[in-house]
Amino acid sequence: MHPSLETVDHRPWPLPEGRWNLRQQWLDLLFAHWPIDAAELKPLVPEGVEIEEYGGTSWLGIVPFRMAGVMFRGLPDLPGLSAFPELNVRLYVRHGGRSGVWFLSLDAPNLAAVLAARFRYGLPYHWSKVLHRSHDEPGAAYPFEMTAECGRARPALRFRAGYGPAGEVFRARPGSLEHFLTERYCLFTRGRGGKILRVDVHHEPWPLQAGRAELDAGDLVKPFRLSLPDTAPHLLFSSGVRVVSWPARDVRRELELVAGGSGLRPALGMDVPAVVPYGFPGGTAAGCSAHGAAMKNS
């Protein structure tokens, strides 16, 4: 059994049925968030995907971190492929009865990972120059640093962050802003033909700390005709979690099967309308099935 599956009681819904197919670790993360009005973010997601709010506003996150142990189930780590830094820009959404993450962009220097994620999931990954460094020498201003040049725009989008923890480790309390921003167990993306896909993930509860940082991040949101507020961002740091994920599922198809009396059971937390109100074409993503009790997850 994967070590992350030893703890499951914190999940908002049961583990997916079927076998997970990908493992990884997310390490040394900075969660930097800014409040942005939902009306500005709504044009950036497809119809039927709801922008979620907390405290009367929606939130945009920029997350620099490093990946390790990235590999398909049953295969060993591969040098040069299984570990790399990543930088993403993300929103918080709800679709098909579940809260998750919608990525506006993901930048990484690993071309194989970028191509695989774009092909398998339709995620907006970009091959970019991203460097992540650790600083443990005396006098270092921050223990971690990331710089990036993202070539998906001309001139290149530039990012720089020095960051680290600034407090004791804690676990986000349900109902808190910290829980809203971090404890999410699926992502949504637009697949072929406009289908909305869901990728379920599992990890331990985030070990969080207050964060501190110096950031130059405004370039990353310019392609989306956004600007970061002048207010200081909400900062969190995490040493990281171990993660497994499942194949992408076609949300519309899943809901149709349940609502149509197929005998499939909806998963806990899934809204099941009498008529599926989405205008996207039909079709089934690889691994699509209705969720039920967890089985063969180990």
Q: Could you explain the architecture of this structure?
A:
- The protein is mainly beta.
- It has helices spanning 38-41, 111-121, 177-182, 251-259; strands at residues 22-36, 50-51, 58-72, 84-95, 98-108, 125-127, 129-134, 144-150, 157-165, 186-190, 196-203, 208-216, 234-245, 249-250.
- The protein is built from four helices and 14 strands.
- It has a seven-stranded mixed β-barrel with strand order 1-3-4-5-10-11-13.
- It is globular.
- The model is unreliable at 262-296 (pLDDT under 50).
Number of strands: 14
Name the shape in a single word: globular
CATH superfamily: Acetoacetate decarboxylase-like
Q: Output the CATH topology.
A: Acetoacetate decarboxylase-like
State the CATH architecture: Beta Barrel
Mean pLDDT score, rounded?
Answer: 88
Read across the widest sheet, the strand sequence of neighbours is 1-3-4-5-10-11-13
Q: Using the CA coordinates, give the radius of gyration.
A: 19 Å
Write down the CATH class.
Answer: Mainly Beta
Question: How many helices?
Answer: 4
Low-confidence stretches: 262-296
Largest sheet: 7 strands, mixed, barrel
Overall domain count: 1
Instruction: Please identify the structural class as seen in this structure.
Output: mainly beta
Note the run of SSEs as H and E. Answer: EHEEEEHEEEEHEEEEEH
Strand content: 35-45%
Helicity range: 10-25%
What is the strand and helix layout of this fold?
Elements: E1 22-36, H1 38-41, E2 50-51, E3 58-72, E4 84-95, E5 98-108, H2 111-121, E6 125-127, E7 129-134, E8 144-150, E9 157-165, H3 177-182, E10 186-190, E11 196-203, E12 208-216, E13 234-245, E14 249-250, H4 251-259
Parallel strand pairs: 5-6, 5-10
Antiparallel strand pairs: 1-3, 1-13, 2-4, 3-4, 4-5, 7-8, 8-9, 9-12, 10-11, 11-13, 11-14, 12-13
